[in-house]
Each structure stands twice: as structure tokens, then as C-alpha cells.
Amino acid sequence: MTRTPITAGQVADIFTGAFGDGIESIDVKEWAEGTRKSKNHAVWIRMRRDLLHDAVRKLIEIDYPHLGVVSGADTGDDIELLYHMLIFFGIPHAEITVTITISLPKTDLRVPTISDLIPGAVYTEREKQEMLGIDVTGIPDSRGLFLPPDFPKGVYPWRKDETGIRDDMIKELWKVGRPEGRPAPPVKPKEKKKKEADAEGAAKEPEPAAAKESAPPVQGEAPPEPQSPEPAAEEKEEVTQDE
């Protein structure tokens, strides 16, 4: 299958033509980064949640996307989900970030799974269920992902309303001192520290320079004759004359 890149503007046009009034807003952004001013392209699409599954399918028709993550936030009356995807992944200067945003009213927190289209999505969908309390319909695995089994039911760590973390569950670790009765960590004896410091200093000392070898002869010149050590001075013998 040949992947033929298109522009971010063309992606926006395809979605506008396919979903019409179902798109609440769509923005095309381009910016440059780094010393080479490499361009980045992104399309931000906000649409109705009932169109989510079809929107992901439409994106697959353009190019099978790389799903980064589904992020979520409590915005007050709604839970907002953002599906961060990348198309033409791995093609230099052609990659386009596509973010599809949907809002779920807290009175009806249902959203269809997209794991039948992108299997890896099941993990980030499971996270949104336990952290935000949404209901991902059709998800093949609804087990928790991060919270322990004994975590209180109906409490969702990312929520800001009455279903969020209770005050009695908050632990401000920066206020917690050392528990009473816990021994202080052992301190190394001074003598041991001194030995370690000496060993460290010895390791940092430069090694003695190796004896310099004689330079090779210049081309065309005879090599220098080896110099023999000077002979030791001969001791003078006293000559006696016979009378």
C-alpha cells in the first residue's frame, strides 16, 4: 500500500465534507521549530461524540494513525476527551497531528470504544474509565489499570466535583516528617571516608608519561647511528723504572 501524504488543510477539508454540521470547530495550525525551522502541522477537530467512531474510521482511510493517548479533563458540567493521533507517521516533513475532541455531559458519560479500529486504544480507554468515571461502551477489557483493587468505588482521581478525591484521602507528603521510632540512616566512619577519598584522589592522578620514542627518520636521510655509551676512564697505571 502506497502512502500518499496530503496537507493538513486537505485533511480538514475531507472532515468538513464528510461530517458537515457534526463538526463544531476545526483549526489548522502550522509552526516551525529548531534551528532548521522544521515545520509542524496539526489539525484540531471538535465534533459530536456520536461521530467519533466514524471520524476515526475516516482518518484510517487517509492514513492509519498512530494513537498517542486519549487525554481527559473535568471542565465543570462535562468531561472532555481528546484523542491525540498522528498520520503519515515516519514520513519526514509529512507528519500531521490530528486531535479529535468530544465533550460528554456528566449526565451521560458514555462514549464508544475505538479499540475495534485501533486495538491499542483499549489501554488508554481503561485509564479514562477509572480516572474520570466514563463508560466506554463495547470495550473488550474493562478492568482497572492503575488503581488498586481496594480503591473506593465511585471515586475518580481526575474529577473535580463530588466524585473526586475526598479531603481525607489527600496526603501532603511535603508536610510529613520522619516517622517516630525509625532509626537514622547509618553514617560512614570518618576513617572509611578518608580511605575512599584517598583512593578517589589516587585514581584521578595522571599516569607518568611514557618514555618518548626516537622520531622516525625523514625520508631521504640516513637513520642516525646508535650512540654507544662512553667507555669508562681507564685507570692510570704507575710505571716503575728499573734502575
Question: In words, what does this structure look like?
Answer:
This protein is an alpha/beta fold. It has a domain at 8-175: Beta Polymerase, domain 2. The protein is 21% helix and 23% strand. It has helices at 8-19, 52-62, 121-132, 190-204, and strands at residues 23-33, 38-47, 66-74, 78-87, 96-105, 110-112, 135-137. The strands form 2 sheets. The protein has a 5-stranded mixed beta sheet. A two-stranded parallel ribbon has the order 6-7. A hairpin with a 4-residue loop joins strand 1 (23-33) and strand 2 (38-47).
Topology diagram in text:
Elements: H1 8-19, E1 23-33, E2 38-47, H2 52-62, E3 66-74, E4 78-87, E5 96-105, E6 110-112, H3 121-132, E7 135-137, H4 190-204
Parallel strand pairs: 2-5, 6-7
Antiparallel strand pairs: 1-2, 3-4, 4-5
Condensed summary:
With 243 residues, the chain is of the alpha/beta class.
What class, by secondary structure content? alpha/beta
Cα-based radius of gyration, to the nearest Å: 38 Å
Order of helices and strands: HEEHEEEEHEH
Mean pLDDT, to the nearest integer, reads: 86
* CATH-defined topology of the domain at 8-175: Beta Polymerase, domain 2
CATH superfamily placement of the domain at 8-175: NADH:ubiquinone oxidoreductase Nqo5 subunit
